[in-house]
Write a structure and sequence with these properties.
heterodimer; A: 190 residues; alpha+beta; Arc Repressor Mutant, subunit A; three-stranded antiparallel sheet; 14% strand; B: 248 residues; mainly alpha; 9 helices; 3 strands
Amino acid sequence: MTSLAKLLEAALFASGRPIATEELAVLDPDASPAELQSALDELRERYDVDGHGVELLEIAGGWQILTRAEYTEAIERAQLAARPARLSGAALETLAIIAYRQPISRSEIEEIRGVAVGSVLKSLHERGLIDVVGRAEGLGRPLLYGTTPVFLEHFALRHLEELPRADELAIALRVQPRETEAAAVTEASE
Amino acid sequence: MTSAYTPDLNGPPPDSSFVVELTAFSGPLDLLLALIRDEKVDIYDIPIARICEQFVIRIRTLGLNEAADYLEMAARLLRIKAQMLLPRGDEEQWEDPRAELVRRLLEYQQMREVVDVLERRGEERRNQFARAYLPQAPAPPQAPLALSLSELLSAVDRVLRTVREPNMHEVIPRALDIPGAISIIRSVLALRARILWTEIVEHTAEPWQILSTLLGLLELAKVGELRVNQPKPFANVEISRDVASEAA
């Protein structure tokens, strides 16, 4: 392993959070971005090929060493670490809407979900998954919400674009779409 | 199928095995989508009367918290149902009253698909530990206060000890007899027009007597019954009847 790869490994091991590539670059000012990237690739391959209990993942615009999923049960049984609580369905729905429509106001989220989301927003905010990113121009200047880097970490996303694009989402409910009616509906809704 | 739904809220649901816990749904749109799936109907051609009826049956066991959201949807469905019954007139110009609902359902369905993605990704991430797992859970609420009586009392004691000793004055009744002194001065002045301080205060007088006489003198001087004169510092004080007031 190159000395740069070893240095990166030590830094990543020392941090619990993903480290952004720019932060890794600070470790060795002489290393070029290409060298940095190849060192990271080397490290990742090392973990994958040699069969390690951990792996190197690209998350939230950074890099993080995580244990492999196959050992989770054993680790948890031994009470060495505990998995975090799952998010509720309401929380996931709200997060999904914010992730796609950010910045978005509470009333717009409620319009899509069809239910009040005040308390859900509060708990998502407390968990650091969302944050207030601004205020809308309209009446009452409502707060606008957006997702945070913690959101990306929580779902192990490299960036928001990793989520499926809205137009890629299949419409599972389109049972026997009848051409004429579908067209009529589209027209009416526009 | 009965086309007219009679709101018999007290009776048991017609088919109790069919009633699903509302808590299983995250909202009225979720319930509506489930109904559409269960009834195997085309979302672009929702048989609104049937779906509306099913919806109302299922929300019979509403909890208060969800009531508003579900009732609003029920009202919306009933309105669409009524609009569907109106004669269409010009087929070209007719706008499907279900269109807005369909749009919202499709939007909601899209969002549900994103939820599936997030759920899967979240579950994968949950199964991997970082070094010292960091995405922090909110701080646990503080443990209830547990302390013994003696601890409480010593705490109170500590607090009380920090309070400064208050400045206490002992108020004693004045042992002076000013009215008595006044009457003595008046009676003496009635006999003599001019007297000296040393003549009305005996050598053996107690401090309270001296003070009483002094205050009596000042009092009478104030109301103008007499004049007090001291020719030079530390000289004997002369007391004389006030001529002006006498004349008046």
